[in-house]
Design brief:
Number of strands: 24
Helix content: 25-40%
Structural class: alpha+beta
Distance between the termini: 54 Å
CATH architecture of one domain: Beta Barrel
Largest sheet: 7 strands, antiparallel
Shape: elongated
Radius of gyration: 45 Å
CATH class of one domain: Mainly Beta
Oligomer: single chain
Strand content: 25-35%
Length: about 400
């Protein structure tokens, strides 16, 4: 028993001697450093730390298992879709206001709101003393012209018999010319207020005596507004209603100034609804308004579209997918080829089937599934598009291994 206690004490004493020697060595090697009050960040987190472009070397087994696919970066004019919001409006030549050119009283209404009408169809009738005076002036002028014509013919017959002097014949010709001018003037005034030639002929023949001005539809379409009632007094050129032809509509798209700068009339457009993206109508940009819209802060593109199955309709909100094309050749690569180190975009360039180099690039625009490279990539370089996460993990492993 005393021998066992002696051995344990000897072992504890030995361990204490070893620990004392280690602490003594550490205290001798440690050099005191002044406390500046600042803690430096690791090199990998420092803002001035250069981004490392590591080279990843794969083993033959890794090459076979990863089977990395690449694309070759080329410089070319790039087409990409630009999706923008839009609103449907009546086409400029497919909407018309209804108005009367003179003051009057509504005495008949033949078409109402929501009804389809044809061009030339009578919508309503207006009774007006002003219009009656125009009719009376025309009929009087027509009668005067007939009298002057008959008088001139009689004067010419008397002139041939040397009964009437030549100056009387010339005066009769002048009176007849003035009478014809008055007829033409009053006739034109009737046409200007919307009277048809058939109605004028009925007045001349006595078939029609009521001087009702008939307001007709200027275009085919649907009456979307009806603002008058029977017996209502209306003023000249007062808005009485509106007609819209929905067979063609105007779609206004609102594009950002950056995208609007590269769009051109004639660029292809697909119009769709957000709820039904598969339902599309192909069209093309008609015109582009170059100034910035103050309300939407955007460039406006105008697209004329023939409707299909009564779609799209005025008032609807739609989506416009425009096929934009860069004005100059650019380098574009698939978005899946890009990885990020913090806020820096990187790709993996293929040096040979076993070696890839992580390379940092600058991106100018992300366009759908593609990106346009501003700098850092040249045409002809092969970029990995599959197993990019695996390459990123291997590059991080090699960085840690080097440290």
């Amino acid at each position: 028993m005393p021998h066992i206690m002696t051995r344990q004490r000897a072992r504890i004493a030995g361990l204490l001697l070893i620990l004392m020697a280690v602490f003594s060595a550490c205290s001798e090697d440690a050099q005191p450093t002044p406390d500046t009050g600042q803690v430096s960040a690791p090199p990998s987190l420092s803002e001035n730390a250069p981004a490392a472009e590591a080279v990843i070397t794969l083993t033959p087994v890794q090459v076979q298992e990863l089977n990395i696919q690449t694309v070759t970066a080329t410089r070319d004019n790039f087409s990409y879709p630009v999706s923008v919001p839009g609103i449907v409006m009546p086409a400029p030549d497919h909407i018309s206001l209804i108005s009367a050119p003179i003051n009057g009283l509504v005495v008949a209404i033949h078409a109402h709101e929501g009804e389809k009408v044809r061009k030339g169809e009578v919508l309503l009738e207006i009774e007006s003393l002003e219009f009656a005076n125009l009719v009376a002036e025309y009929l009087q002028a027509e009668a005067e012209a007939k009298y002057q014509k008959s008088r001139l013919e009689r004067m010419k017959l008397l002139g041939e018999k040397k009964i009437t002097p030549q100056r009387e014949i010339e005066r009769a010709e002048s009176d007849f010319t003035r009478a014809n001018a008055v007829v033409q003037g009053t006739y034109s005034r009737l046409l200007a207020v919307g009277v048809s030639e058939q109605q004028i002929e009925r007045w001349q023949s006595g078939q029609e005596r009521h001087s009702h001005l008939k307001i007709t539809a200027p275009i085919d379409g649907v009456i979307t507004e009806h603002l008058v009632d029977m017996g209502q007094a209306v003023n000249a050129y007062q808005k009485l209603g509106a007609i819209v032809d929905t067979r063609k509509v105007l779609v206004k798209g609102f594009v950002s100034p950056e995208d609007g700068a590269i769009l051109n009339p004639g660029d292809r457009v697909d119009i769709s609804l957000r709820e039904y993206p598969e339902k599309r109508i192909p069209a093309a940009i008609g015109t582009i308004v170059p100034t910035l819209d103050e309300i939407n802060k955007s460039i406006t593109v105008n697209v004329l579209v023939n409707t299909s199955d009564q779609w799209p309709r005025p008032g609807q909100n739609v989506r416009l997918t425009i096929s934009a094309r860069t004005p100059a050749p650019v380098i574009s690569i698939p978005l899946q080829a890009v990885q990020y180190e913090g806020d820096q975009a990187a790709v993996f360039l293929q040096l040979d089937p076993q070696r890839y180099r992580k390379h940092f690039i600058q991106i100018s625009k992300i366009a759908g599934e593609m990106v346009i490279v501003e700098s850092g990539l040249n045409g002809g370089e092969a970029v990995a598009v599959t197993q990019v996460f695996s390459l990123k993990a291997l590059s991080k492993y090699e960085e840690f291994a080097e440290e």
